[in-house]
Design brief:
elongated; 81% helix; mainly alpha
C-alpha cells in the first residue's frame, strides 16, 4: 500500500477515534440527564407526600375543635387527641426531613445538570476540532460513511477519497449503503481489536495534535461555562484528563462495535444541544 494511502487511513482512524470520544461523552451526558430528571421526580414526590400529611393533620385538628361534630359521637376525645398528637409528630418529622432533602436534592440536581452541561461542552469542543482537522479530507456530510470508506481503503479497492466517495454514492443509489456501512463496521471492529497496538502507535502523532488543539479550544468554553453559571471545575470529565492520546485510543477500542452512522448521530446530539444552550444564552443576554 502506498504511503499516501496509509496516511489517509490513519487520518480516517483518527477521525473515528475523535468521534468515539464524543460518543462516550454523549453516553455520560445521557446518564446525567436521566439522573437529574429522576432526582426532580423523587423530590416532587417527597413534597407531595408531606403536603398530604400536613393536610390530614389540619383536617383532624379542625374536626377535633368542632366539639359538636357528629364525627365525635362514637370516639373518646382522649383517643382522638392521641391520634392528632401522632399525626402532628409525623408531620413535623416529615417537614424536617423535607428541609434536609431540599438541600440534598438541590445539590444532586445541580451536580447532575452541571455534569451534563460539561459533557456536552467538552463534546462540542472536540467536534469543532475534528471539523477543523478533517473536513478538508472528508466532508462532514460523509462522516457517517466513515467505516465503509475505511473498509474500501483497507481492502485496496480505492486509492483516494474521491474514488471512495464514488463507490459510496453508487451504494447509496442502490439503497444498499446502510448494509454496506454495517458490514464495513464489523470488519473495522475486528481490525481495531486484532491490530489495536500497531494501529494506536501509528495514530499517536495525529492524536497528540488533536489533543493540543482541543485543549486550545477548551479555553473558549471556560468563559462560556462561567457566563451560564456552570462550575469550571471539572468533576469527572476534566479536559486535561480526558484529552490524552490514551483516552482517544481507549475510546476507539471501546466504540469499535458502534457504526460510524451511530457515532455521527451521537456527535449531532451533542452539537445540537450545545447550539440550543448558546441560543438560550444569547436570548437571555448573557
Amino acid at each position: 500500500m502506498l504511503n499516501n494511502e496509509n496516511e489517509i487511513i490513519h487520518d480516517l482512524y483518527a477521525l473515528r477515534a475523535g468521534l468515539s470520544v464524543i460518543s462516550k461523552l454523549k453516553d455520560d451526558a445521557a446518564i446525567q440527564k436521566e439522573k437529574a430528571e429522576n432526582t426532580k421526580k423523587d423530590h416532587e414526590k417527597i413534597i407531595q407526600e408531606t403536603k398530604t400529611l400536613n393536610t390530614l393533620r389540619e383536617v383532624v385538628i379542625s374536626t377535633l375543635n368542632n366539639k359538636n361534630s357528629n364525627e365525635f359521637v362514637y370516639f373518646d376525645d382522649r383517643i382522638i387527641a392521641d391520634k392528632i398528637l401522632s399525626l402532628k409528630e409525623k408531620s413535623e418529622a416529615a417537614n424536617a426531613e423535607l428541609i434536609r432533602l431540599n438541600d440534598k436534592y438541590h445539590n444532586e440536581f445541580s451536580k447532575a445538570n452541571m455534569l451534563f452541561a460539561t459533557y456536552v461542552s467538552d463534546g462540542n469542543v472536540i467536534a469543532s476540532t475534528l471539523y477543523e482537522n478533517y473536513s478538508k479530507i472528508l466532508d462532514m456530510r460523509d462522516w457517517e460513511n466513515l467505516d465503509f470508506i475505511i473498509y474500501l481503503f483497507e481492502t485496496g479497492r480505492v486509492n483516494n477519497i474521491k474514488e471512495a466517495l464514488l463507490i459510496v454514492d453508487k451504494e447509496r443509489r442502490k439503497n444498499e449503503i446502510v448494509s454496506a456501512i454495517n458490514n464495513a463496521s464489523t470488519a473495522i471492529s475486528e481490525n481495531i481489536n486484532n491490530g489495536f497496538t500497531k494501529l494506536q502507535e501509528s495514530l499517536n502523532n495525529r492524536l497528540n495534535l488533536l489533543v493540543k488543539q482541543v485543549e486550545k479550544l477548551s479555553s473558549n468554553v471556560v468563559s462560556l461555562t462561567q457566563s451560564i453559571e456552570i462550575q469550571t471545575e471539572r468533576i469527572i470529565t476534566d479536559l486535561n484528563k480526558l484529552n490524552t492520546t490514551a483516552e482517544y485510543g481507549n475510546a476507539l477500542r471501546e466504540k469499535a462495535n458502534i457504526s460510524s452512522t451511530q457515532l455521527v448521530n451521537d456527535m449531532n446530539y451533542i452539537r445540537n444541544f450545545a447550539e440550543n444552550v448558546e441560543i438560550r444564552r444569547r436570548n437571555n443576554g448573557i
